[in-house]
Amino acid sequence: MTDSSASSTPSAASHKLWGGRFAGGPSPLLDAINRSIGTDFRLWPHDIRLSQAWARALGEAGVLTREESGALRAGLARVGQRIADGAQPQPTDEDIHTMIDRLLHEEAGSVASKLHTGRSRNDQVATASRLWTMAACRDLDAAIRTLQEALLSQAETLTDAILPAYTHLQRAQPVSGAHALLAHFWPLERDRTRLANASRGAATLPLGSGAIAGSAFAVPRTLLQEELGFAAISQNSIDATGDRDFVAETLFTCTMTAVHCSRLAEDLIIYGSGEFGFVRFGDGFSTGSSMMPQKRNPDVFELARGSGARVLGDLVSLLGTIKGLPSGYSKDLQDDKRALFNAVDLLHLVLPAMAGAVAELRFDRARMRAAVSSAMMATDLADYLVKKGATFREAHGAVGSLVRQAEEAGIEMDALPASAFASAHALFGADARDALAAEASLAARDIAGGTGPNAVAAQLAQAREALTAASASA
Ligand code: ARG
């Protein structure tokens, strides 16, 4: 540390981790653009931990005496306690590392000036950010599970409900309500795998890399790794101080989760419209209109859908930040945390709100069932002909002509006269209309992953198992 004022008891106004080589002080305009404590304050528990590990490692390396190392660790614990008790940054604290250094001088006296030996804020902030990210991935996993639980609980009540599934947002084929809801469970399950991978990506220790070339003090990095719970040690100090892949991977994962929430929200918004009426939003999660007294608006789902754009913006912003950087640390990287924290904070608003709103949904089985028209079983009718020996192409044409006739007459397909079936294809028998029942259509699809009752029961069990397994290891 070259700042001589820092080795005596510094005043808050003068406390800096750098500055000795400058004749004058920094411009307030520099201070304003440079200060990041408003964003990085939340790194403090991780910064305290890694600094304690660093003090220990300096002791092991013979840079500090046992007493000095112990005094620093104890002093850092007191600093952590002060911040936990509400100690706030001074307007002059550049970032959280500077604030902790200032408080450590207050708590431990001049020995505090030895802590920064052999390290840089470059390896320090990378380490703290990785520790924060690993914890964030765990917390997000729990938040995603809460939404999955809400979806699964609703799905378990909808096994015998039937509604249309849509392609191109046109009625396609009937499916069970459980199947429709679980279509949103599995994307979230994939997000949890991605989160675990992102956490693994963050679990490489940069500390010991110094500013860019590695520390000149022989600190035992394996000891740091073990104390801080990292899975590996970085192999290249240039890479380690400038690497933000773990931020990009976490942000991509956050973006996928936000996109999945957005698509679920979109389905529910459509289901809740007057024209569909498949679902009613709970009072606790509906908003009214200042003008139209009748309104019941799904703001939670709309805000969740909108949040997807903001999280995507954070990913794009981070990728834009790192794309053109030279190797090693550049100050642009200070903005990585703004993007990361924004995205994670937003998901901690969206996921619980979605979970609460999903738990309060009331499905209208009659409206769902009424939306299933017999034309949606046209494929089943074609399959009927195939089973009787027709080729699928031939069957498709025959059923197509029946669809047209029903449409022209303005009636359901199962209301067409038997003569229409007979003239459409010779293989149609008296049982042809049975193929137009929605229940039969579902029952025919008991293939694994299909919407048949046994397949859906197995799917529900798998989903339950995925959540239980996670809770057991949590
Ligand atoms: N606040 C800085 C950041 O978040 C800490 C690292 C500062 N490093 C430096 N060389 N100025 O990136």
CATH-defined topology of the largest domain: Fumarase C, Chain A, domain 2
What structural class is derived from the secondary structure elements?
Answer: mainly alpha
Percent helix range: 55-70%
* Count of the domains: 3
Give the strand order, joined by hyphens, for the main sheet: 1-2
The H-and-E topology, N to C, reads as HHHHHHEEHHEHEHHEHHEHHHHHH
Bound heterogens, unique: arginine
Mean pLDDT: 94
Q: CATH H-level name of the largest domain... which superfamily?
A: Fumarase/aspartase (Central domain)
| Low-pLDDT runs | 1-12
How would you characterize the largest beta sheet? 2 strands, antiparallel
Number of helices: 19
CATH architecture of the largest domain: Up-down Bundle
Radius of gyration: 31 Å
Termini separation: 42 Å
User: What percent of residues are in strands?
Assistant: under 5%
Which CATH class of the largest domain is shown? Mainly Alpha
Could you give the count of β-strands?
A: 6
Q: Please state the overall shape, judged from the principal axes of the Cα atoms.
A: elongated
Short description:
By secondary structure, this protein is mainly alpha-helical. It has helices at 28-34, 37-40, 44-60, 66-84, 96-108, 121-156, 177-182, 185-202, 221-228, 237-242, 245-272, 299-323, 336-359, 365-370, 378-387, 392-409, 418-424, 438-443, 453-473, and strands spanning 162-167, 170-176, 204-205, 232-233, 279-280, 362-363. Helix 6 packs antiparallel against helix 8 and helix 8 packs antiparallel against helix 11.
Description of the molecule:
The chain has 474 residues and is mainly alpha-helical. The chain has helices spanning 28-34, 37-40, 44-60, 66-84, 96-108, 121-156, 177-182, 185-202, 221-228, 237-242, 245-272, 299-323, 336-359, 365-370, 378-387, 392-409, 418-424, 438-443, 453-473; strands at 162-167, 170-176, 204-205, 232-233, 279-280, 362-363. Helix 3 crosses helix 6 (121-156), helix 4 (66-84) packs across helix 5 and helix 6 (121-156) runs parallel beside helix 13 (336-359). The structure holds arginine. Arginine is lined by residues 36, 40, 95, 121-122, 125, 329, 331, 333-334.
